[in-house]
Design brief:
single chain; 174 residues; alpha+beta; OB fold (Dihydrolipoamide Acetyltransferase, E2P); 3 domains; five-stranded mixed β-barrel; two-stranded antiparallel sheet; 8 strands; 14% helix; disordered N terminus; disordered C terminus
Length: 174
Amino acid sequence: MKREGRGTLLQAEVGLVTAVEAAWSGAQQLAVKTEAGVERAVNYVGLLGEIEPGEQVLLNTTAVRAKLGTGGYHFVMKRAGTERHAEAQGHIVKLRYTPLQFRCATVEEQESPYREAIESCEELERMPVIATALHSQVAPAAAAVRGRAPSARVVYIMTDAAALRWPSASSCPR
């Protein structure tokens, strides 16, 4: 069943998983039969668990259908007939204010595998650093720095994962 229409921002289609073509830490590459034929899709195991052939899935087909050059992969949004509730983790929501929002941990949280590395850092060559959890905190932080040191240079770094957190660094599609 195809879900698209004029002015649609997000295209979604139902498909049937025919094979798991590849798997790596945190993700699966699936072959999925849609109305357009057998196509490739990525499933993030941390979001939906491992998917098996024969399962029906809801795919985000927006980029492929728009021919955006994204590698030809759809993304699995939901497994049919299952309501999987991931263990609640983290105090930050990624993709917030969208139907696809999900929780994730930040590096400074107690449970983060990166907390020890952050706490053990002792030197940044006398460079002051401010880490914020939200983009909306950058402007007030920069204003505070410039208020105390008008000639200070302020740099903002946004990682690729700022809008979407991969389940782990090694699980990005290859």
